[in-house]
Amino acid sequence: MAFKTTLLSRSITAEVVGKDPSSWYQAIIINKGSEDGVQRGMPVVVPEGIAGQVTDTSSRYSKVMLIIDRNSAVDALVQRTRARGLIKGESSGRCVFNYVLRKNEVTVGDKIVASGLDGVFPKGFHIGDVTGVVRRVAGIFQEVTVTPYIDFEKLEEVLVIQTSPKPEFANQQ
Question: DSSP readout, the chain?
Fold first, then answer.
């Protein structure tokens, strides 16, 4: 996978071997687990952008919650204006860009990227395009709809980014 060579972090290539059959959750099963170095909370990406996050692991398999799941959240930015908000999944296969202040400029076609401020997803990774904006007269937030770049029905291979452990500071005397 040529995409793997562009990542600065270590990553694990995995194949999608299953999909959560429930209509309540948007998740996939990958063929790598704790024996391969996959841990809960690690981000999962493809060349098009962010796919999701590892939620459960066994020795040889892991479950990945996709960004289109209602329980998913990604801290994100409008690439052009740097307006910030939170990408949340919707059952329709799209996402909602919540908590974007009404005063911020967001237009259809704007690209949404990860801010990196959530401590999970790498800054600058692509998420999707703005496909709808509703700026109401009242309220402090606008309603923004985002269509992800990834076709989640056709996912075959993903990269699990191995996050580096947080540094521990030794007591200095």
Answer: -GGGGG-SS-EEEEEEEEE---SS--EEEES--GGGT--TT-EEEETTEEEEEEEEE-SS-EEEEETTSTT-EEEEEETTT--EEEEEE-TTS-EEEEEEETTS---TT-EEEE-STTSSSPTT-EEEEEEEEE--SSSSEEEEEEEESS-GGG--EEEEE-PPPPPPPPP--
User: What distances in angstroms separate CA 90 from CA 30, 77, 104, 133, 150, one per listed residue?
Assistant: 22, 18, 23, 16, 14
Has residue 169 been placed in a domain?
no
132: nearest Cα among 110, 155, 158, 165: 110
Q: Cα-flanking dihedrals φ and ψ of residue 24, to 5°? A: -80, -25
**Mind listing the pLDDT tens digit for each residue in 45-67?**
999 999 999 999 999 999 999 99
- Choose among 2, 5, 9, 7: nearest CA to 165: 9
- pLDDT tens for residues 96-111? 999 999 999 999 999 9
Domain boundaries, position 21: 2-69+153-161
Q: What is the CATH number of the domain that holds 40?
A: 2.40.10.340
Which of 106, 159, 161 has the alpha carbon at shortest distance from 131? 106
Instruction: Name the pTM for this structure.
Output: 0.86
